[in-house]
Hints:
By secondary structure, the protein is α/β, with parallel strands linked by helices. It folds into three domains: 3-248, Aminohydrolase, N-terminal nucleophile (Ntn) domain (Glutamine Phosphoribosylpyrophosphate, subunit 1, domain 1); 252-439, 3-Layer(aba) Sandwich (Rossmann fold), CATH 3.40.50.10490; 441-607, Glucose-6-phosphate isomerase like protein, domain 1 (Rossmann fold, 3-Layer(aba) Sandwich). The chain starts with a strand and ends in an 18-residue tail after the last helix. 5-amino-5-deoxy-1-O-phosphono-D-mannitol binds next to α8 and α14.
Amino acid sequence: MCGIIGYAGHRPAVPLLIEGLRRLEYRGYDSAGVAYVEAGALRLLRAEGKLGELEKKINGRDVTMATSGIGHTRWATHGVPVERNAHPHKDNSGRLALIHNGIIENYQERKNELLAQGYTFSSETDTEVLVNLIAEGLKETGSILRAMSWAFARVEGAYAVALVSPDEPGVVYAARKSSPLVFGQGLGENFVASDIPAFLPYTREVAFLEDGELVRMDANSWQVFDAATLEPVDKPLHHITWDVQSAQKGGYKHFMLKEIFEQPRVVADCLAGRVDLRAGRVRLPELDGLEPPRRLTIVACGTSYHAGLWGASLIESWARIPVRVEIASEFRYRDLLLDGDDVVLAVSQSGETADTLAGMRRARELGARVLGLCNVVGSTVSREAERVVYTQAGPEISVASTKAMCSQLTVLYLLALHWGAAKGTLPAEVAARALTGVHGLPQVIEAELPRMRERACELARKYASVRSFMYLGRGQSFPLALEGALKLKEISYIHAEGYASGEMKHGPIALIEPDFPTFALALRDPLFPKVKSNLEEVQARDGRIVALTHPGLDLTVDDPWIIPEVWGPLNAFLALPCLQLFAYEMADYLGKDVDQPRNLAKSVTVE
Ligand code: M6R
């Protein structure tokens, strides 16, 4: 769960690596470091804390000589986040420097062997074990390439690594297994990184490295090898069409705010080419030739799980397919009852979430067919799924996921329509209404966002001092209540509970008092009268209520937040930005680090 970048070219490497790390900082920010070769010597610069701390260390030094190097931004897995554990790590001879994203599961075993051979360690990291294992491999095999292969054969776990050495100045080696790594080919320069935005200002030509591949690159050449056999592998290059601007803040104070405001465009992009209004149907060519599932299991984590919960009820209702939704970290370890009649849909923004990937792999082992719903093109989910439907939301930088959920809801909505049409379970008038409704949705969201933000600001000022919030919703609003609570807690650090409003009286109602307010989703739907009664139960305990509601509904609460009503399930697309903006404004008002909340990382590539 770290960000790595490697560069070999003609520009000063250190400033370029720092700039690349800035675009990878969403992957972790406990410490940062770079390594490069200068005048035949290996140089390491590392600092605890965010990238700015590393820059302070670099300031005043002349680091313009080196034209190749590696850089790392860390999210701690082994060892506390202090400088001695920061990457890069050197081997005992000081001839190799390595950066690593992932976890070497058998590192203790390997470390004990190396200790017995006289190796010493100055950090608690698994990475220092790996670099010394490569050094041992170098003794055995005589070349860095063979040494890396030798070492990888002896480790278990996940890694994306990059390595430099003064023995081969100007050369960067990199490899991956179960952690993301992309290669970028420039003109007289080459790159590797955990994610494309790291090098996007310099090239759009990329190759996605697969598990078990290793690349050797210098300024003018590159070659991918099978890490086990060292046979050369031909890799096709892909042209990336999105630009650096879409990976920048674009004038907004935070990426999160920018991404919330991108949602109208996200829905439009998701629909583009997929909705045929005249024919009254959805086109998902990615699923051509695939029968609708007989049983569907949605597997996901965090916000993607909430999107899955929301989508499940639509798929059940429109396509009459039984759907269960599973938290991936639970699903992967259960004694699962899956077979060839089951379809598993992995939902993941990043496509790299370790638990979701493990869930997919278990499902496949048991004979289920595995589909992916994913944002990042070329990610592991997209490559391991039998078919993948992309959410096309563009890069999501803020750790708090916003536009990705909006895009997931859109695709799940389309899937429900697609399978409903294929099975003939969806009445034509519902299909027509659903398609015209979703088609007009981007303009409605666009028009409402400024007003939503104003209301979120007002409410944030009023409620920012509370220590806890209850989020309540029923039916299709229940997943939104969970999501609202998740957003609030992850960026403002205010405790929040998302609950099904009908379930609240079975326990959580004991918490209600004036300082424990409730954020209710009380939209016009068949369950509104039930929600209203649940809110009356809260009011009877002196609980204050903010209620997201529709015009004309009979509801009296402390702070109504009235949003325009659209058709049926599409109301979620207007409720969602309100929940996101409320959390955003609370966190911003409290002066929290919105885009990089403490203890979190964007892509959770460890279990
Ligand atoms: O990339 P994924 O969609 O698989 O990520 C899943 C969760 O880690 C993610 O949604 C997380 O909960 C976000 N921080 C929520 O804002």
